[in-house]
Amino acid sequence: LLEAALETIYTEKHKLRDAKTELFGGELVAPHERPSRAEYILGRVQSEKLGAVSAPQDFGFDPIHANHNNDFVSFLQTAYRDWKAEGFKGEAIPTALPARRMAQKCPTFIEGKLGYYANAIETSISDGTWEAAYASAQVALTGAKRIQDGANSVFSLCRPPGHHATYDMFGGFCFLNNAAIAAQSFLDNGAKRVAIVDVDFHHGNGTQDIFYDRDDVLFVSLHGDPMDTFPYFLGHADETGKGAGAGLNINYPMPPKTPFSTWRDALTEGLNKVRDFKPDALVISLGVDTFENDPISFFKLKSKDFIAYGADIAQLGLPTQFVMEGGYDVEEIGVNTVNVLQGFEGA
Ligand code: OKP
Ligand code: ZN
C-alpha cells in the first residue's frame, strides 16, 4: 500500500482579512494575525511536498448556522459597511460591552452591536473580513468532508482562526469557529462522537462554550493559565462541562515558561481521555503559538517538539482533521506547523 500524502485545503480568500489595526498595549498596531501567516505555512507545505493543495468547496450557510446564531452571522456580514455608513474613519472596533449587571439586549446602533457581539476588543472588523471568515469556515468544512469520504487525515489551512468565536461572539482574531463547525459537520453526517483537542497556546474559549453541555463532543484544551494570559475569563481546570456534557470538558492551564516535557505530559493525559471517549473523528485546533519565540505567548516549545507531539497524536489511530488556529512568529510558523503534520504522518 502506498502511503497517502496529507492533503491541505487552502484558499487565497484568506487575504481578504487584512485589517490595518489591532488594539495592543494601548496602541493600534499592525495585526499579529496577518495574511503572511498563511503564506508561510503554505510555502512550507509546498517546499516539503507534504501533499496536494486543494481549494475548498462551498457548503453554504447551513453548517455555519448549526453552530452560530443567525443574527450574529448577519451582523458579521454587514458590520464593516454599517460602521462606515456612520462616517467613522477607522476600522470597526467595539467600545462598550454588556458587562456585569448590564442588559443583554442587542442595540440598534452599530457601535452598540459591536459590543454586544464581542468577547474581546483587540480585533477590528475591516473590509473583507466577512468574506475571509466565510471562506475559512468552508476550508474547515471541506477538510471534514474529506475525512467523511474516507481520508485518514487532512489539513485545513484556515485563516482567520476560529477557536475564540462563540455561538454569538467574535474576538481574539476569530469570527466563525472553524473547528466547531467541522466537528458539528461530522456529527451531522453520521458520526456519533467527535473529540476536539486544542493545542493552541490560548484557551479555546469559543469551542468550550459551544459544546459545554454536550455529550457528543469531548473538548480538551492545553493553554496558558487564563490568570496570566488571554482570554483571561475562561479556561480554568475546574471547568469540566455541565448537564449531559459533565466530565467532557478538560482544561490543562499551564504557567509561564512551561517546557515541552510538562506540556507533553498534559497532552498524553488528554489523548488518553480522547481514547476512552472512543470518538469517530478527531479535530485538532492547531495553533503553533506554543513556540518559544512566539511574540505574544509564554510556552517554551522548540521546533523539533512539534514533530514529537504530531507523532503522539497519530498513536490514537483516529481519522484526524488539523484545523489551523494561531501562531505569530511568522518566520517559524510554517516550519512548526508542518513539523506537526510530518510528525503525525511519520509515526
Ligand atoms: C488568538 B489565537 C496579548 C493580547 C492577546 C489576543 C490574542 C488572540 C490569540 N497581550 N490578544 O488563539 O492564537
Ligand atoms: Zn493562540
UniProtKB/TrEMBL annotation:
GO terms for biological process: epigenetic regulation of gene expression. InterPro entries: HDACs, His_deacetylse_dom, His_deacetylse_dom_sf, Ureohydrolase_dom_sf. Its cofactor is Zn(2+). SUPFAM superfamilies: Arginase/deacetylase. One of its GO terms (molecular function) is metal ion binding. Residues 33-341 form the Histone deacetylase domain. The keyword Plastid does not apply. Belongs to the histone deacetylase family. This is Acetylpolyamine aminohydrolase. It comes from Roseovarius albus.
